[in-house]
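Recall that a protein's primary structure is simply its ordered list of amino acids. Everything else, from secondary elements to tertiary packing, is in principle encoded there. The following example makes that idea concrete.
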Amino acid sequence: MVPGTASNGRVLDSATRELTRIRLLFSLAGRVDPTAGRPGRLLDRFDFGRFTPHLRSSEAVLPVPVLSERLAPDDLELPGAPHPLALAALGLLVVTSPRGDATLLMDCDFAGETPAVAVAAWLATTCFERDQLRLGGRPLLDVVSERLNLREPLAFGQNVHQLVFPGGELRVELLGTDGADETPRSVPLNEIIYRGRLPSGAVSHHGVQVPPNLRNHGVTLSAHGRGVSVQAGWAAHVENCLTLVAVGLVSALAVLQRTRLATFEMMRANQQALMDSPYEVRSLISRLSAGVNELQLDLAFGVEAYVDSLLIPEMVLEGFQSSLRDALGIRDSLDNSARMVERLTSVINARSAALDAALAERDDRRDRTVSGLVAAATLIALPPTLLLAFFGVNGTDVDSHRSILDLHSYGAAYALAWLPFVALFLVGFLLLRRVSGRSGSLLDQSDDGRVTLPAPRNPGS
């Protein structure tokens, strides 16, 4: 009988596994164009069984494969001493979200027995020393970047999640382990989840989570920490869906971390910007606004799209997704990051309003200055115009033998031309002084320094 198939022919979600499989998920720094490669759809790469209709309806949201290769097991070189595990098959897959957030998936099948201690050591090496992983004698990410034809080489991000699908004796040993009881039989499970970082023989359940609806003693087991998941007794299509859930959460966590750093960078740019001109302020607002728009798109389509059960609304997967999401702290990080982006938006709006007010005030001052200059030019031009008209008249009051600067003869003309404008200037000056004096008395300051409004005047007085 085929593993995962009942006697009546139905495909079950549980199955036996002879060989241990480990899938390594590495978040990658930078972005990869979803159209960079054409290795086919994700639905064509894996068998998702009865969950396929859910994924087909949400295919536009799923990660897109940009590189998919089967490699010789001997090509993978780990740092340090030779590891006791024998690698039987090796697959390499790079997927990227529609926003370009890339995740590297290494699919490793092992031959022979895989004791918990050896699995824990293998997990620790591929996690903590992942920068030293080599493929065919070259750094792993250099090979991946070359095959993707990227201009800049990829780099490992901060997030790693390793899914262990135990087979053979390891599977039997772990299925006999009840994660709720602190017995010596729990030691292999903790050894794997903690990557062998606890003292030998120590038993601890701190940080190890076992979703209740995925726990069926002796048949299936799903337990995980932040960085390692142990999934025992599941059929291949469930394993593939659990991997897809983990890929989405690892990618979402990487987006949240990038968003948080970008928010701080934008806040620092806002504080340190030199704003000597309205053009510089407007340029700063434009850059910050564009950055906030990208952050909001990242939070919406790089995080929120993968943190709920809408993609695969099935209890088997929802329990693991919810539990791993809580272990990674994605929900709280998403809420905090969204509030930070909202406050950054408020700062940008306030700076934009201040810029508009400053520009309006500048335009008002400019208009007043231009009006004053026009009025002054008019006042200055009128007296000479009148005098020129007077001297240009062919009359008896103008002596062609005398200079127009002869004030003894033409003083009365100069006085008549300038006196009205001088009187107008004096009257305007007195009126402005009077208005300034009244406006200054609108707020009276008391002896104790408090500002009070003046008492209303009696209209009849």
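Residues 330-392 form the longest helix (63 residues). DSSP finds eleven helices and twelve strands in the chain.
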